[in-house]
Amino acid sequence: MAGLAVLPSTSALPLPFPGCSRRAGSLRRIAPKVGRSGPLTIVAQLELKPPPYSLNALEPYMSQETLEFHWGKHHRGYVDGLNRQILGTELAGLSLEEIVIKSYNEGDLLPTFNNAAQIWNHDFFWQSMKPDGGGKPFGVLMELIERDFGSFEGMMAQFKNAALTQFGSGWAWLVYKANRLDVGNAVNPCPTEKDYKLIIEKTPNAVNPLIWDYNPILVVDVWEHAYYLDYQNRRPDFVSTFMDKLISWEAASARLEAAMAQAAEAQAAERAREEEERRKEEEEDEETRDDGGDMKMYVDSDDDGLEDE
Q1: In this structure, are residues 209 and 175 in contact, taking their beta carbons and an 8 Å threshold?
Q2: Burial level of 270, CB count in 10 A (0-12/13-18/19+)?
Q3: Which helix (H) or strand (E) holds 38?
Q4: At 106, is the secondary structure helix, strand, or coil?
Q5: What does residue 35 show for φ and ψ, rounded to 5 degrees?
Q6: Which uninterrupted H or E stretch holds 263?
Q7: Per the record, what is one GO cellular component (predicted)?
Q8: Which of 75, 147, 203, 246 has a beta carbon 3.0–4.6 Å from 207's, enabling a disulfide?
Q9: What is the pLDDT of residues 154-183, one digit of tens each?
Q10: Are the CB atoms for 48 and 76 separated by under 8 Å?
């Protein structure tokens, strides 16, 4: 009988370092080993991804101590917990995003959802910041912000309000809403909003916009452990500092460009599908007309087969 490969704890992983290029939520497959009892099962293990900067790089706005606890303990705990949960299950071979969506289970959360979503959320949060961040966005991102919110200041005010009014633990997001008005996995929170635009969302606990098929552009973590060591209970001070000093608008712009490209591809594929359906309908109509033109009518006669008397 095949045995299961044992997953090592991520506590042995090294501290983060600048320039790390491992993809968020990446999987590492443990190679099968052959022993007396036969080959071991191949296991897909999620690895803890370090922030794209050193742990003291965000000081004085976010301390090394905060990152040591937030990334080194909380984030690490989600990774270790999910690896234990998916070991030997059908989820072990899926990407992190797929695990999040499948575990959401139309709102009836599976036990793996919280760990999976929190891993994804934290990877995204670390990448939403940079040393010497803040300022203003540029290019297409700024154009859409001004179009959809009236001004950069208007967007920032809405984003801050979402972060401060999220009761308890959760997240505030700037997302690109492409074209999903009917998502089978979840109730769309903004069904009346115009498609192909930027919107602000806030989510409780581990929930993120992936479940609505939205494209996150920016996020701030408002779980208390994200800021308590530096700001105690002053969430407004933390959120203001994040917005003014830590945001990576370069990362946000890159995410928007990717989201728009993905939406354009999906739109083109949908148009091609509709065109193909129209073409098939026209061919079927043409065949029906051709069949009708060739039809001949045969009338029975009483004289058929009778000889003249």
Answers
A1: yes
A2: exposed
A3: strand 38-39
A4: helix
A5: -130, -170
A6: helix 249-293
A7: chloroplast nucleoid
A8: 203
A9: 999 999 999 999 999 999 999 999 865 445
A10: yes
- The token pair at 190 is 């903004």
> Hey, what are 203's tokens?
């989510």
Residues 6 or more apart in contact with residue 49 via CB below 8 angstroms: 20, 22, 23, 24, 25, 26, 123, 126
Place of tokens 């208007």: 154
- Residue 19: both structure tokens together: 């320039």
* Residues in contact with 84: Cβ distance below 8 Å, sequence separation at least 6, in sequence order: 7
CATH architecture of 64-263: 3-Layer(bab) Sandwich (3.55)
- Tokens matching residue 231: 């700001």
Phi and psi (nearest 5°) for 132?
55, 40
Task: Tell me the pLDDT tens digit for each residue of 205-228.
Answer: 999 999 998 999 999 999 999 999
pLDDT at residue 45, as a whole number: 80
Q: In angstroms, rounded to a whole number, what is the distance separating the alpha carbons of residues 124 and 139?
A: 22
CA 181 from centroid of its chain's CA atoms: 16
For residue 98, give Cα distances in angstroms to 92, 95, 121, 124.
10, 5, 14, 16
In angstroms, how far is CA 2 from the centroid of its own chain? 35
Q: What integer best gives the mean pLDDT of the chain? A: 82
Residue given tokens 């208390």 in the structure block = 224
CA distance linking residue 145 with residue 154, whole number of Å: 9
Q: What are the start-end ranges of the H helices in 128-234? A: 139-149, 152-165, 228-231
**Structural contact between residues 232 and 141, judged by C-beta atoms closer than 8 angstroms:** no
CB-facing half-sphere around the CA of 216: CA atoms within 13 A: 24
